[in-house]
Structure formats: structure tokens, C-alpha cells
Design goal:
The structure holds 2 protein chains of 2 kinds.
Chain A (H helix, E strand, L loop, with lengths): L2 E6 L7 E6 L5 E6 L3 E8 L2 E9 L5 E6 L7 E6 L4 E7 L2 E8 L6 E6 L7 E6 L4 E7 L4 E7 L7 E6 L22 E6 L3 E8 L2 E9 L5 E6 L8 E7 L3 E7 L6 E7 L4 E6 L5 E6 L4 E6 L5 E3 L5 H4 L9
Antiparallel strand pairs in A: 2-3, 3-4, 4-5, 6-7, 7-8, 8-9, 10-11, 11-12, 12-13, 14-15, 15-16, 16-17, 18-19, 19-20, 20-21, 22-23, 23-24, 24-25
Chain B lengths: L4 E2 L3 E4 L5 E6 L5 E6 L2 E6 L7 E5 L6 E6 L8 E6 L2 E8 L2 E9 L5 E6 L6 E6 L3 E6 L8 E4 L6 E4 L6 E6 L2 E6 L8 E4 L5 E6 L6 E6 L3 E6 L8 E4 L4 E6 L5 E6 L10 E5 L8 E3 L6 E8 L7 E7 L3 E7 L1 H6 L12 H6 L5 H16 L14 H11 L11 H5 L13 H12 L8 H10 L11 H7 L7 E7 L4 E8 L2 E8 L11 E4 L7 H19 L6 H20 L22 H8 L9 E5 L3 E5 L4 H4 L31 H18 L22 E5 L8 H6 L7 H14 L3 H14 L19 H13 L3 H11 L8 H19 L48 H5 L4 H10 L9 H18 L2 H9 L15 E2 L6 E2 L25 E3 L6 E3 H10 L11 H9 L2
Parallel strand pairs in B: 1-26
Antiparallel strand pairs in B: 2-29, 3-4, 4-5, 5-6, 7-8, 8-9, 9-10, 11-12, 12-13, 13-14, 15-16, 16-17, 17-18, 19-20, 20-21, 21-22, 23-24, 24-25, 25-26, 27-28, 28-29, 30-31, 31-32, 32-33, 34-35, 35-36, 37-38, 39-40
The chains are: A mainly beta, B alpha+beta.
């Protein structure tokens, strides 16, 4: 079902911690313990290194591409407590903004849905979440912090899609309500928290408690308009939990699976129906909800097939 | 505080035992060594190497062992083995099994005898139960405590007979035996796993925990929220035990973690900054240690240790060591060791001790302290020599009597008072360099008081404590006297022969000098680069008075590898030696501090998968090595970065020292061991030499995941959207779907085509086609089905097909005109638009009743003229508000005006289209995207600029539409030609009159006053407003 398109030898000198392709799937950004971020052009099974961004002084944990309507922007976050926003000008990449107000490693960065403008959320081990907003007129960045979002530390952030589902029903009022910004975060307090912007403050809207160990990653599923919010969270307790809600206030949890090792990455497909899960066992598995509302693994039968080995993977 | 060093005074090797548990009995006479194959009892008071060996028929290792601490049952000994606890009895030189306690369902992780009741034994297991056994009835546990989490340690309180503590991962639970249903206190002690637990022998409420996070925490159980004290070490701590004297604590590192650091550290609880003493000697990690009294009335203690190097060592704890822990055997008052040290030169008692020690020291030719208890032949002796090697410089075989003779105690110890120890060892390495009088060395000690606990003091010590197992490094010569060493480093075909000379003042702000020797194979430019790296590394260390040999060598290896890697690639990638280009403020934070901080930082992801772009799945992971050795289910990846130990050093060269990759090959080593030996005691495992292979870099794999999705790029390219001919569109798209073998879609499109071509219904049938089960509801359920399946392509396409195409200018106006025209046009035909009551307002106006007629925009022109004044721009749902006085009309309009799709769901359907447009955008199909966007009921983006709003001249109500909502007059009417203005217009800002720009221009070419005759001199007035 899934075929290998490219094997990119990144040339990183140490472990890779994140890799993401841009909106069109034409470029790949990777980041590594060797403190660098690399950008590759991917075309027809070949790749060329177009940039090797050095600016972090510690392992780089995560990268994120912005929506192309803002240009080619890439955000990266690192152990060195910094968030750097890189921009491509012509063929050159340069730092456009560096944010260094966190007191500990920054573990996660995520761009807001483009409808809101150019906004970046960052989660740090100092427990706080920062929201950096770009003002297009001035070109400046304004930072707002949610201090103490998670005690001990925040490990992951993810944005709610801009089209909130429950608005789809308020169709009698022809005017669309202003979109509400929401964030989901996961942290070392074993909690998943949902935040909502109210005026100029971010308030905690819901606190989801099921995990029994650190939450490693959270992902808000993209919406196709269905009146339902879905969030996936994964944790050190080796579980992946799917959270669903019709009103963003009461959430139901469903434990997808308990894996063999800690799970540290969940990612939704574009339409939010397939979930990719990976963790400490070096495996990737894909999950889909069937018509009975049960989540089933769709990438074959045995573990070995999901193994990220050498490049041969058949599913 | 300076670190003292000492060596053991008795060593016995028992290689054949392969024991991994040890226990000392109540009397201190017997030591039990337990392994998988043998149990052995050794009498410590006998000066022979005789062992009482009992073979054991078990395929399981012994996990924990303990003798009964009560004199009445001192012969009993408990062992844990897999799921059982065996109770053995040692009587008359015979070891026999008394009981086998079976109730645990998983491996028993720890056992502990009750401190006062000789019949009680507690055992804990990862099956989450803690069982308390009574020896009088061993068929089942006397009591079972159920914890939610599996527990790794259990300890009875040493003073209170009801209290016991258990460790569960990073937490401590305290139980009261009388109230066994739930823990009475819960302590969130550590973020990482707790390896060891111990109650204070002096205070009922005090508890020490040792953890993977490299700390030992002291808790007062009456205040469980906060640790009373924290001892920070650089490495994960396996055990921390209180000393039976004073307020001391002894710690050892986790067995499997790291080779090279095998010492036991003695701490004074009142001085948590650094250990007060180090017991050096084991060549591998210490597995177990216990205390014994030398004899019952003496206050002397001995520390008995069993290491993975299969040697049993006994360390005499001298009174001065006890004093360091605040214990004063001779005096009633307890001296704080800090005071003791501070007073060192002034304190006559102390200095006389030093003098005495130095005296003894010289007398006994320095090393003196190592005694061979055992050993039958010379080969073992030489082995011993090489094993304990550089620490102990001479052996005295004849010293058995000396060793046990208490009066000789002062001399038997290597680590003397600070002055003595320093003088002694430095005199060995270098006759004069750092040697000084006692006062001198005392002050030096204070100068270096900030040093890390494991910091060696002399070159001799640095050499001896260096980890010689660095990959690719061979130590050719180490000459502490000449202060020179030479090393051969080879990596990827390059060889570097390096001679390092250490100046006398090294390491105090004086770096060693590096010199490349004959045989070095790198070119001069690389040489200078390497030299720079070495110098930089050394500088960084010695600036803090730290030794630098090992970091330098590791750095050299790393640089050399990079060098060759970059040469291997091509010149495109620049040679990147890890040189910090700019210091950052936190770079200088000490290792310990950093490691402590890392406890909150999650362990780095080393694999992942992300959906990106339109249908790509980007995966990355570790090298395929792990495939062969899949992780054991018990062994999970640690959660925090601190598990890597040491801490990462952003930007500094020591970064390579501990990185995730190093963790991974270590882990593999562990895993192999665990697998080979069954479930438990992984942490006490025997030597499994890890082969440090360089973790190969894994590539990033990009998969095409689009077959997983129901939408298809080819369909996106080929689908057509045509609202003029819905049937044709559906048929065409059905054919397109057939080309990509999507029969389900062919079926759906065919059905859609049928629905669109509304069948000739019976004119008398009162139900409009849209309300027919096969009409709107079918289409809507189809859309809902596809949306639920996440086939956003099909859902959006159906939405487009059956929704009116928006006329990007003014959707609302268009829609209202549309629905009115529909009414008008359908009424005469009377076919499927039933009209309860009809509408008197609708003049019959026969139109073409072609299928798509109702959504054909041109109909606008053919509309009935009876409402001509309100023709333009009435929103369908505003019809209601306006109210024509005919409610039946409104009802009629609201119920059946709409097409195939329920208007209530417009937003939802728009969302489908938006998402599909986004998918098309990602595919780069911009034309197709634009087509879809045309069908959005609202424009793609809300206009946010300046908007022109007209105010009705008659009722002063602003309206953005062509007519006033109140009076229905045209809101902007040209004062010259009296028709509504579309297009360019100009209005006087004062009187509000205006009209077509062209007309106004012509008028004001000649006139200055308003054409209406209102008397306003528009040109003048307007300009005065604009330019005041």
C-alpha cells in the first residue's frame, strides 16, 4: 500500500530528531543532534541539499514549515533554549527571528493554521508555552507566554484546525463567527491540556487526564468539517490515546493501543483519518478507524514490517 | 571538599561463582555469595579462601539475598529467584532449604527481613504485590499489600516495627502493616527510576532513595513533599545505604551503566556538596555492599563489597572515617565533619593524626594496604597485581596478621587524612611536583574545594582512573613520573601518534602540551586543526582546574572521524570541527547542574513518522542494528534526557561525550544480556562487554502514502465541474473514475447523474423532487458517507455539483435572485414545484424548464417584474424579515426554494470544498482548485480593506446593497439621470448628492452648485472638507 519514494541520506553527524516536508511535499527539512538543520529539495526520487542551517548550539529537536502563503519559513527549536525562524530569500536561507526567552530546552514548535496569520507556538521544558505572533505590517514578532502550562515541562504543542467543527452548525446566522484559536499541549505532568484564546489571554479550557506518565506528543487532527474534534496523544506509558469531543469541553478517551515501548510521535494524515505512530521501538505503525469506530492497524501484520530498517519496508 | 582515596585491605576472588548477590549475616562472620550455579558461604574470620559451596539447580539468577538480622534466627537466609523466595538455613556447616515461598506471579525484585520479628519477611515483585510472609506458616503470605505499580525495592523501617517502604519506579509508597489496604504516605521522589531504598538507622522518619537520575534524596516521611537533602552525583546511583555509624551514606553507581567508575563514595549527610571519601579498587562495578562489625564490642566497622569483577573486598572503616561522617567513637559529642576539615591545620588532634599517619605511611612503603587473603598460586597473584594495578603499588603477602590487627589500623588505609593522602600518592608519581607539607596541602585542598567529586588529584591518579576503553585509542605509554604519555589514535584509516607532556602545575590552569609524533598520517592542515581542537578542549578543562586527558582524547577521536568523514564525502560539505563559535551563558554551568536540569527534558526522539505535503509519509529512525535485537518489553526507553548521564554540553567539544547515539549502542549491549539471562536482574547483570560500534546514520525515508487515501491526484486533474450540465458532469466524472479503477466512484457518479436528471414526475404528485427520497436526502447521505470515509474529494465534488455556483461578486444577491427566479420559473410548469397556496405576487412567466434552468444565472433577466423595486439583493432568508405580509409565501420560500442541498449545511459543505481545494493546492493543481473555490458560498477571503457604504438619503440607514432596506429606494441614485448607479460614482461629501462619475464631471465642468438645487456649492464645500 505504501511505496518508498525516496531514501534521503541526510549526512547528519548524529541522530535525527525530526523530519518534515513542506506544504507541497517538495522540500524536506531535517534536524539532528549535530546542532544543524538541513533542507533538501526532493524531486523524482532524488534529493539535493539546498541548505545547512547552523545557528543552534545544542541538539535540534523539531522543525516546522509554515504555510506557503507567508513564504518559505521554517521554525526550529533546540536544547539550547532557542527557537529560530529561518526564511528563504531567493536561494539563501537566513535567520529572521530568534526567540530565546525560555529557561530550558524548547521541545516543540507548531505553526498555527494559516487563517490566523503567522503564529508559532513553542513548548519548553521550563513548563511554559510561548505564542509568537508576527505582525505583517511591521514584520515584528510579539511573544506571549502561558507560564506554567505544565509543571516540570511541556513536551508537545499542536493547534486546533481553524475551521472549528461546531460552527458548521450555526449556519442560520449567515455571518461566520470569528474563529477561535485553540491549542493542545502535553507535558511531564502526564496531562493533555486544551487552551483557548480569550481576548489577549490564553485560558485552560480542558484538562485531559488518562496518561500515567509523561505525555510525549499530541496532535490535533485536521478537520474536514465534520462536527467533531479529535486529538491523539502518546506517552511514556506506552499508550496512544484518541480523544474526541463534540464541543471541545467534554472529551472522551479511547486507548488506541499499548505499545511495546514508549511512544513519542503521533501524526495525522491530511484528512485526519489515518494516524502514524512511532516510538522507542523504532517502529512505525499506521492506524485507521473502521466503520464500527474501532481503530485498527492497517500496515500489515507483523512488527518487523514497520521497522525502520535500512530502507526496505513493504506494507 | 577534597576527596580521599583508599583501597581495600582484603581481597578475595571467586571467579567460578558468577555470583551476583551477596549478604552478610547478623554476626558478620558469614558471607553468602549467590549466583545461578552456586551458593557459597564464606567465613570472614577464617583466614583462608575456603568456601562452602552448594551447587544450585536452577535456571534463574538470584535476585536479592538477605540474612535474618535477628539473633534468634540468624541462621536463616532469604533468596529471591524468579517468582519464588527461598529461605535457607545455615547450620552446622550445612546449607539447607527450609521454605520455598511461592505466591508472586512475576519476578521477585527484593526481599527484606523484619527488623525485630524474626519470623517476618517482606518480598516485593513487579506483579504489583508486596507480600509479608510468616515463617511459621509459609503456605501463603501472611499479608499482601497491593500497589498499583510493580515495586522494585522493599524495606522495613529500622526503628518502627509496622512501617515499610516500597519503591515503584520514581515513587515511594509507605505502608503501615496494620492498615494494609493502601499506602499511608506517597512520595513522588524522583523523575527516574529508584534503584535503592534505605531507612535511617537513627531516625525513624528518615529515608534515603537512590535513583537513575543521579541523585540520592533524603526524605523525612512526615514531610513527603520535599526532599530534606539531595546528594548529586554525575552518574545514576544504584544503592545508597546509611552507615551504621554517624550520619553517613555510601553510594555506588548503577552496575550496567558505565565502566570506569567503580568506586564507592562515602558521604556525610550534613555535607551534601561532595563525598567525603572514595573507596577505590574494584575493577568492575560494585554489585552489593554491606556492613559488619569487626567484633561485637568494638566500634570498628568494615565494609564488605562484592563486585562484578568477582572479587570480595573488605574495607576497614577507620575511626577517622567514622569521624568524617560525624561519628565520634571516643567522644560523646558528634563533630561535624565540615568543622573538622576546616579546622584541619589548627586542630592539634587532627594534625597529630596526620603526622602519625604519614609516619606510618613511610614506614610501610606506601601502599602497604593491599593484602592478599587468598590465593593459592602465583598466577592469581599476578592477576591481582594487574587488576588492582596502578592503585596499589606493592603487595605484602605476609600481612595477614597485620590486616586483622586493630592496632595497625592507621596504617592499613590508603586514604589518610587529606595531607597524608596527597603527599603519599604524589610522592609516588612525582617526587617533588605537588608534594608539600601538611599545611601546604591543606590550603591547596581548600583552593580546589569546588572540584567535582570524582576529580583525580594527581597525574598518577588521572592515569589510573582513565577509562582505557575509548574506541580507537591505544595508550602506548603512561609515565606519571616523567609526566608524559603517548597515545595512538586511529580512525577511518588515519593514524595520529600523539605525545602529551604535562607541566608540573597541571592541571591548575596549565594545559598539557601536545605533539604529533612519527607515524601520524594526517596532512599538515588537518594536523593544525586537530591541534587547535585539542588545545581548546584542554584549555576549557584546566581553566577550572580539571584534568583533561580523557576529554582531549575523546575529542581527538571525534574530530578525526569527522575529518575523515568530511574527506570521504566531498568538498561540498565543509569540514566542521566542533568548535564553539560563540560562548553561550549557560555553557559554563557545571555538569552536575546540567544533568540535573536534563531530568525535565524528554529523552530525544530517535524515530518518527510524519504525514507531510499531500500524501507523503516521512519516516526517520535509528540504524537497522536494533532489528536484530528487538527491545525487551521490560526495557523501555527512558523518559528523560538525564538518562544519558553527564548532560549535554551545548556547543562545547564534550558534546560527543554523551549523545543519544552512545546511548543506543549501550542499550543494545544491555539488551543482549537481558535476553540471554531471562527476565530479571538485568540491572545486576554480569559483564557484557559492549562493542561500541559507531551508530550508522539512518536515512530519512519518504514514502508515498497516497494509496492509503481515498482521494486521488489523477482524479483531481481530470474531474470537471460544470453546473450548467450536472448530468453531463456526473457522467463524465464517472468515466474518469473508471479509468483509475474506482468502481465505487463510478457507481456514485452514475447515481448522482440520475438524481440530477430529475425524472418526469407525475404533475399531480405534490412532492417536489428535492424532497423525494431519491432527491436531496440521497445526495446528502452520499456526501455524508464520503465525508465520513474521509474521501474528501468525492464529498467536495458532489457538493460542487449540486450547489449553486457562486458569482464571486455578490453571493447573497445572486442567491436571492436565483431562488426568486426559480420560483417564478417553476410555477407555471407546475411539475414538481408544488406551491401550497401559490403566490399572488408571482406573475406567470413561462421560462425554459430545462433541467438546470433553476440555477442558471441568466434567469435574472427574465424575472417577473412585479417586485421590480426590490429585485436586487434580497437575501433569501431576509425575505422573512422584510415580510411581505404573506407568510405562506415565506414559508414556501424557506422550505423549497433551495436546491438539492440543505442550506443549513452550507458551512459544512463549504468546509469540504475548502479542504479539497487545499489538497488540490498541495498537488499543485491550481486550476482545479480555482474551479472548486468558485463554488464556495462565501468568498475565499473576507475583504478587510475600506468598504464603501451608502446611506439612504431618505431614511439615513446605511446599506451596502443597492436599495435601502427600509424604504426600498435605491440607495445610490444618480441625481442627473435618476437611475441606480453601478460602477464609478462620485458623491458630494456635504449634501450627499451625486451619481455617475461621468455625469457629475459634465455637470461640474460648468456648474459649481448641486444639480438637485439643494443650494450646496458642492465643489467648494467638498474641497474645504478634504483640505481644511
Amino acid at each position: 500500500m505504501v511505496s518508498l519514494l525516496n531514501t534521503v541520506d541526510t549526512g547528519h553527524e548524529d541522530m535525527i530528531h525530526d523530519a518534515e516536508m513542506d506544504y507541497y511535499g517538495l522540500r524536506l527539512a531535517t534536524c539532528s543532534s549535530d546542532n544543524s538543520v538541513k533542507i533538501f529539495d526532493i524531486k523524482n526520487g532524488t534529493q539535493t541539499l539546498t541548505a545547512d542551517l547552523k545557528g543552534h548550539y545544542g541538539p535540534v529537536w523539531q522543525v516546522a514549515w509554515s504555510h506557503p502563503k507567508f513564504g518559505n519559513l521554517l521554525a526550529s527549536c533546540s536544547y539550547d533554549r532557542k527557537v529560530i525562524i529561518w526564511k528563504e530569500n531567493g536561494t539563501e536561507w537566513s535567520k529572521v527571528y530568534e526567540y530565546s526567552s525560555h529557561d530550558s530546552s524548547v521541545n516543540s514548535v507548531a505553526w498555527a493554521p494559516h487563517e490566523f496569520g503567522l503564529i508559532l507556538a513553542c513548548g519548553s521544558s521550563d513548563g511554559s508555552v510561548s505564542i509568537l505572533t508576527n505582525s505583517p505590517e511591521l514584520g515584528t514578532w510579539e511573544a506571549r507566554k502561558i507560564p506554567g502550562a505544565h509543571t516540570i515541562g511541556c513536551n508537545a504543542v499542536s493547534w486546533c484546525p481553524a475551521a472549528t467543527p461546531n460552527q458548521a452548525f450555526d449556519s442560520n446566522t449567515k455571518e461566520r463567527q470569528p474563529l477561535v484559536k485553540r491549542l493542545v499541549t502535553g507535558g511531564c505532568d502526564n496531562l493533555v491540556k486544551i487552551w483557548k484564546e480569550e481576548g489577549d489571554r490564553w485560558v485552560e479550557e480542558a484538562k485531559l487526564e488518562v496518561h500515567s506518565d509523561w505525555v510525549r506528543d499530541v496532535a490535533w487532527a485536521p478537520s474536514i468539517g465534520l462536527p467533531r474534534s479529535t486529538i491523539a496523544s502518546c506517552s511514556q506509558d506506552r499508550r496512544v490515546v484518541i480523544w474526541t469531543s463534540d464541543d471541545n469541553i467534554t472529551w472522551n478517551s479511547y486507548t488506541l493501543h499499548t505499545f511495546d515501548d514508549v511512544v513519542w510521535n503521533v501524526s495525522w494524515s491530511l484528512t485526519g483519518n489515518i494516524l502514524a505512530v512511532s516510538g522507542g521501538d523504532n517502529n512505525v505503525s499506521l492506524w485507521r478507524e473502521n466503520n464500527e469506530g474501532q481503530w485498527i492497524r492497517i500496515d500489515g501484520k507483523s512488527k518487523e514490517q514497520g521497522q525502520l530498517a535500512g530502507g526496505e519496508r513493504e506494507m | 571538599m577534597a576527596t580521599r582515596w583508599s583501597s581495600e585491605y582484603i581481597v578475595a576472588e571467586h571467579r567460578d561463582l558468577q555470583a551476583n548477590a551477596m549478604a552478610v549475616d547478623y554476626t558478620g562472620n558469614y558471607v553468602l555469595l549467590a549466583g545461578r550455579r552456586y551458593l557459597a558461604i564464606k567465613n570472614l574470620n577464617e583466614q583462608s579462601d575456603r568456601l562452602h559451596k552448594v551447587p544450585r539447580q536452577s535456571k534463574y539468577e538470584v535476585g536479592a539475598a538477605e540474612w535474618n538480622p535477628n539473633p534468634s534466627h540468624k541462621e536463616l537466609c532469604a533468596l529471591s529467584s524468579n517468582q519464588r523466595v527461598e529461605v535457607l538455613s545455615w547450620q552446622n556447616g550445612d546449607l539447607e532449604q527450609r521454605h520455598s515461598l511461592k505466591s508472586h506471579t512475576r519476578v521477585v525484585s527484593d526481599v527484606n527481613w523484619h527488623r525485630f520479628d524474626p519470623n517476618l519477611l517482606a518480598s516485593c515483585s513487579i506483579d504489583t504485590f508486596i507480600h509479608v510472609w510468616d515463617m511459621r506458616d509459609t503456605r501463603r503470605p501472611a499479608q499482601s499489600l497491593s500497589a498499583v505499580a510493580g515495586s522494585t525495592q522493599v524495606r522495613w523501617n529500622r526503628l518502627s516495627s509496622f512501617l515499610l517502604a516500597t519503591a515503584h519506579d520514581g515513587d515511594i509508597k509507605l505502608w503501615d502493616q496494620r492498615k494494609g489496604t493502601a499506602p499511608v504516605v506517597y512520595i513522588s521522589a524522583h523523575l527516574a527510576k529508584i534503584h535503592g531504598l534505605d531507612w535511617s538507622p537513627l531516625h525513624e522518619d528518615q529515608l534515603a532513595t537512590s535513583s537513575q537520575d543521579g541523585t540520592v534524596k533524603l526524605f523525612d516521611i512526615t514531610n513527603p513533599r520535599k526532599a530534606e537533602g539531595v546528594l548529586t552525583t554525575t552518574l545514576p546511583v544504584w544503592r545508597a545505604r546509611y552507615t551504621p555509624f554517624g550520619e553517613g551514606l555510601v553510594t555506588v553507581v548503577v552496575p550496567q551503566l558505565r565502566r570506569g567508575e567503580n568506586s564507592l563514595l562515602l558521604w556525610n549527610i550534613n555535607n551534601q556538596a561532595a563525598p567525603v571519601h572514595t573507596f577505590v579498587g574494584h575493577t568492575d562495578v560494585v554489585l552489593e555492599f554491606e556492613w559488619r562489625r569487626v567484633n561485637h564490642d568494638s566500634s570498628d566497622f568494615e565494609l564488605i563489597t562484592w563486585s562484578r569483577d568477582q572479587s570480595l573486598r573488605i574495607w576497614r572503616i577507620e575511626p577517622f572515617l567514622q569521624k568524617l561522617c560525624g561519628h565520634e567513637p571516643d567522644m560523646d559529642n558528634v563533630l561535624d565533619s565540615q568543622d573538622l576539615i576546616d579546622d584541619l591545620p589548627q586542630n592539634p588532634r587532627e594534625s597529630s593524626l596526620n603526622d602519625y599517619q604519614r609516619h606510618r605511611y613511610n614506614e610501610h612503603t606506601m601502599a602497604h594496604n593491599l593484602q592478599q587473603l587468598t590465593l593459592d598460586n602465583a598466577s592469581v597473584l599476578s592477576e591481582m597485581l594487574s587488576a588492582s594495578g596502578r592503585n596499589s603499588l606493592s603487595l605484602s603477602l605476609d600481612g595477614t596478621s597485620e590486616a586483622t590487627d586493630d592496632s595497625q589500623g592507621g596504617s592499613v588505609l590508603g586514604g589518610l587524612g587529606s595531607g597524608g593522602g596527597r603527599g603519599g600518592s604524589s610522592s609516588l608519581s612525582n617526587g617533588s611536583a605537588t608534594r608539600g607539607g601538611s599545611g601546604d596541602s591543606g590550603s591547596e585542598d581548600r583552593m580546589q574545594s569546588v572540584r567535582s567529586p570524582t576529580q583525580p588529584k594527581t597525574l598518577q591518579q588521572e592515569f589510573s582512573h582513565m577509562n582505557l576503553n575509548i574506541t580507537n585509542v591505544d595508550m602506548d605509554r603512561m609515565d606519571p613520573v616523567g609526566r608524559v604519555c603517548s597515545v595512538t589514535v586511529s580512525a577511518n584509516g588515519h593514524v595520529v601518534v600523539l605525545q602529551i607532556s604535562f607541566p608540573a602545575s597541571y592541571p591548575f590552569s596549565t594545559p598539557p602540551t601536545f605533539q604529533f609524533m612519527q607515524g601520524t598520517s594526517v596532512n599538515p592542515s588537518s594536523k593544525s586543526k586537530l591541534h587547535k581542537v585539542l588545545k581548546h578542549t584542554a584549555q576549557q578543562r584546566v581553566r577550572k582546574n580539571r584534568t583533561c586527558l580523557e576529554p582531549c582524547l575523546r575529542q581527538l577521536v571525534a574530530s578525526l572521524q569527522q575529518l575523515s568523514a568530511s574527506e570521504d564525502n566531498d568538498s561540498k560539505t565543509t569540514t566542521f570541527l566542533r568548535m564553539p563559535s560563540q560562548p553561550s551563558p549557560y555553557m559554563d554551568a557545571s555538569n552536575m547542574y546540567r544533568s540535573y536540569q536534563d531530568a525535565n527534558i524528554p529523552f530525544p526522539r530517535t524515530s518518527g513518522a510524519k504525514f507531510s505535503g499531500a500524501g507523503a509519509l516521512v519516516c526517520f529512525g535509528r540504524a537497522p542494528m536494533t532489528k536484530r535485537l528487538p527491545l525487551h518489553s521490560e526495557m523501555w526507553t527512558p523518559r528523560s534526557l538525564s538518562a544519558l548521564g553527564g548532560g549535554w554540553t551545548p556547543g562545547t567539544p564534550t558534546h560527543t561525550y554523551t549523545s543519544v547515539s552512545s546511548y543506543y549502542y549501550q542499550e543494545r549491549g544491555q539488551v543482549s544480556r537481558v535476553r540471554s539471562r531471562g527476565l530479571h536482574t538485568s540491572s545486576r547483570g554480569l559483564v557484557g562487554r559492549m562493542t561500541p560500534t559507531r551508530t550508522t546514520r539512518a536515512a530519512v525515508l519518504i514514502y508515498d502514502a497516497s494509496p492509503l487515501f481515498l482521494f486521488h491526484r489523477e482524479l483531481g486533474e481530470k474531474y470537471i465541474i460544470s453546473s450548467h450540465d450536472v448530468v453531463g458532469m456526473c457522467q463524465r466524472n464517472a468515466a474518469v473514475a473508471a479509468t483509475v479503477n474506482r468502481r465505487d466512484l463510478v457507481q456514485a457518479w452514475t447515481t448522482a447523474a440520475l438524481v440530477a436528471s430529475n425524472p418526469e414526475a407525475d404533475p399531480d404528485d405534490g412532492v417536489p423532487w428535492t424532497h423525494h427520497p431519491f432527491g436531496r436526502s440521497l445526495i446528502e447521505s452520499m456526501i455524508a458517507h464520503f465525508a465520513h470515509q474521509s474521501d474528501i474529494q468525492m464529498a467536495a465534488m458532489l457538493c460542487c455539483a449540486f450547489s449553486p455556483r457562486s458569482d464571486n461578486q455578490d453571493i447573497n444577491r445572486f442567491k436571492s435572485s436565483l431562488c426568486k427566479s426559480v420560483n417564478v420559473s417553476r410555477l407555471p410548469s407546475g411539475k414538481w414545484w408544488s406551491k401550497p397556496g401559490g403566490s399572488p405576487y408571482h406573475t406567470i412567466h413561462p421560462l425554459d424548464t430545462s433541467l438546470e434552468g433553476w440555477n442558471y444565472p441568466l434567469l435574472k433577466q427574465n424575472r417577473s417584474n412585479s417586485w421590480s423595486d426590490s429585485l436586487e439583493g434580497l437575501k433569501a432568508n431576509e425575505v422573512r424579515e422584510v415580510g411581505y405580509g404573506d407568510s405562506s409565501l415565506n414559508l414556501f420560500l424557506s422550505s423549497s426554494e433551495k436546491g438539492m442541498l440543505d442550506e443549513k449545511k452550507t458551512c459544512l459543505y463549504d468546509e469540504y470544498k475548502r479542504v479539497y481545494a487545499d489538497v488540490l493546492h498541495r498537488w499543485g493543481l491550481l486550476d482545479a482548485r480555482a474551479q472548486v473555490m468558485k463554488y464556495m458560498s462565501s468568498g475565499p477571503e473576507v475583504h478587510r480593506g475600506v468598504e464603501f457604504v451608502a446611506e439612504c438619503q431618505h431614511c439615513c440607514v446605511t446599506s451596502s446593497r443597492a436599495s435601502c432596506v427600509d424604504c426600498k429606494r435605491l440607495s445610490l441614485q444618480c441625481v442627473i439621470c435618476h437611475i441606480s448607479v453601478r460602477g464609478p460614482s462620485n458623491v458630494c461629501l456635504v449634501c450627499g448628492h451625486g451619481g455617475h462619475t461621468l455625469h457629475m464631471q459634465t455637470w461640474f465642468r460648468k456648474e459649481t452648485r448641486c444639480p438637485t438645487g439643494c443650494g450646496c456649492s458642492c465643489l467648494v464645500e467638498s474641497s474645504s472638507i478634504i483640505e481644511p
